[in-house]
Amino acid sequence: MNIRFVTQKMHAMLDYPVAIGLMVMPFLLRLGQSNRLALWLSVGTGVAALLLTLLTKHETGVVRVLPYSVHLAVDFAVGLMFVVAPIAFGFNGLDAWFYWANAAAVLAVVALHKPAPQAMAAIA
After folding, report:
1. pLDDT (tens digit, 9 = 90+) per residue, 3-22?
2. How far apart are CA 56 and CA 65, in angstroms?
3. Which H or E element spans position 5?
4. Count of CB atoms within 10 A of residue 89's CB?
5. Residue 64: CB partners within 8 Å, gap ≥ 6?
6. Of 18, 47, 65, 79, which has the fewest CB atoms closer than 10 Å, so is most exposed?
7. What is the C-alpha separation between 8 and 113, in angstroms, rounded?
8. Which residue in 54, 104, 116 sits closest to 78, CA to CA?
9. Are the beta carbons of 69 and 11 closer than 8 angstroms?
10. Dmax over Cα atoms in the chain, in whole Å?
11. Rounded to two decimals, what is the model's pTM?
């Protein structure tokens, strides 16, 4: 049984709200209590995520120059960064949990990515 169900289209539809959430939620949650970087790392990542989405060759890309595989690799790297950031920068409390929750969500979406049928044929 294959549990991979997140299609490229589903991922593309999530990208814009996630990017906006990364830019807005730190202010609503008042992140930055343990380290000011906890606020700005998320905002910067949200801006970068918005640019990545605009440039990705998928359903919601505007200037489609980056392959979707590159987008997934960047998402994976961001997920890992979100796991490590609280430890590396001394975030604690809500600052840390915000990053760990986002890391879990990002890494889950990447792990549950369902390759397109043409990608499956290329693998086989």
Report:
1. 888 788 998 999 999 999 99
2. 6
3. none
4. 16
5. 55, 56, 57, 58
6. 65
7. 7
8. 104
9. no
10. 50
11. 0.89
pLDDT tens for each residue of 44-99? 999 999 999 999 999 999 999 999 999 999 999 999 999 999 999 999 999 999 99
Which amino acid would we find at residue 46? G
d(CA 96, CA 24): 17
Look at the block and give the residue holding tokens 């814009």: 16
Q: Which residues, at least 6 apart from 74, have a Cβ–Cβ distance to it below 8 Å? A: 52
Q: Which residues pair with 66 in a beta bridge?
A: 56
- DSSP labels for 14-51? HHHHHHHHHHHHHHHTT--SS-THHHHHHHHHHHHHHH
53, 61 Cβ separation under 8 angstroms: yes
Q: Are 58 and 71 within 8 A, CB to CB?
A: yes
Please name the amino acid found at residue 104.
Answer: A
